[in-house]
Hints:
Chain A is of the alpha/beta class and 287 residues long. Helix content of chain A is 62%, strand content 14%. Chain A binds chain B through residues 40, 43-44, 46-47, 50-51, 54, 57-58, 147-148, 151, 155, 203-209, 211, 213-214, 217-218, 221, 225, 228, and chain B through 7, 9-14, 27-29, 39-44, 65-67, 69, 71, 76, 78, 80-81, 111.
Amino acid sequence: MASANMKDIKRRIKSVKSTMQITKAMELVASSKFRKAKEKAESAKLFFDALYDTMWEITAENSTFDSLYFSGREVKTVMFVVIAGDRGLAGGYNANVLKLAQRKINELKGSCDVVIIPIGKKAVEYFTKRGYRVVARYENIAENIRMNSAREIADKIMAAFRNGNTDRVEVIYTDYVSPLSQEAKSRSVIPLEKPSAEIKKNVQTTYEPSPEQLFDIIMPQYIAGVIYGSVSDSFASEQAARRTAMENASDNAEEMIGDLSLLYNRARQATITQEITEIVSGASSQE
Amino acid sequence: MASFRLQIITPDRIFYDDEAERLIVRTTDGEMGVLARHENFAGALPSGPIKIMKDGQYRVAALSGGVLKVSAEKTTIIADAVEWADEIDIEWANRSAEEAREKMKQKESDKEMRYAELKLKRALNRINVHSGNYK
C-alpha cells in the first residue's frame, strides 16, 4: 500500500512542478512585456493630456464656439467601447472590466439602445456570445497598437455619431494605477461638455484654418488619443495583473511541492520501517 | 539669438523638449516660421518636414499629421509621429509607399482611397526628409 502511495505522490509532485514551470515562464514573459507596456502607457498619457489641453484652449479662447460634438441632443443609443485582453490567465483583469461593462449596460436597460465595439478577444467573445449588437470588433491589436489603428477606430466612432447611429460614446478600460493595483473605469468620449462661460479666456490667437475647422481636425486625433491611451493603459494593466497572478500561482506551487515532498518522505520512511519490522519479525521466527 | 521653449509630443515619446531658436513648419496654408515672442497661434499641420534650429544648427525631421500651438509660455506640436531624418527607416517607408500606391490602384472605396492617400503622403514625406531634400 505504501509504495503505491509513494508513486502517487511522486506523480503529483511532477505534475505540480511542470505547472510551476509554466507559471514561472508566464510570469517572466508578463514582467518583460509589462515594463515596455508601462512606458508606452505613460507616454500615451502625456500625449493625451497635451491634446486635451489644446482642445480646451481652442474652445475656451473662442466665445462663440460651438460644435456638433458638444452635448445637447437626446440620447437614444449609447456606444460602449470595451477593452479587455486577448488572453486569459491574468487574474481578475478580464472579469473586472467585463463586469463593469455589464453593469453599465444593465443601468441603461429599457431607456436606450446599446451598441458595442469590443477590443480584445475576451471582450469579443463575451459580447457576441450574449447577442449584443457588435458594430465592429478588434482582436490582437492591444500589444502593438499604433496611432493608425486607433485612428481607424476613432473614424468608426465619429461616423456613427455623425450619422445619428449613436448619441453617446463611452470607453470602458482598465486604468493602470500601480504594478499591484489596476482599476476598471469608464471614460466618456462624446459628447463633450460644453465649456462654461467662466472659463472663457480673453486671448488673441491667430487660427489657421478657423477655430471650428481646427477643432474638427483635432477631434479625430483626440478620440484616437483616447482609444490609444485607454488601450495602452489596459495592456499595461493586463500584464501587471498577469504577472501578479502568475507570481501567486508559482508561490502556491512551490508550497504544494514542499507539502508533497514532506508527505513523500513520510511515506518512504513508513515503508522502510515496515520492511525492517518484517525482516526482524521474520528473522525472530526462524530462531 | 533669443530662444523659446519647444515641446514636440507624439503618442510614444516626447520627441523634443528643449529651447529652440527657430522652428519652420508647413501648415495647411503654407510654410511658416516661429521665432521667440511669436504671436499666439494655433494651426493644423499636415504631414511634412519640420526644421528646428538649436545653437545655430538646423535639424530636419519628418512629421506625420499634427497640431501646432504657439503661446507666450511655450510652443507645442502634438503629432501622430515625428522622426529625425537619420532615424527614418527608409526601407519601411519605401515599402509603405508601395503598399499605398497598390491600394490606390484598387480603388475600393472613398474611405480606402483617402487612407491610402494619407499613407502615401506620410511615406513620401519620410523618403524626402531622409534623402536630405530639405537641408
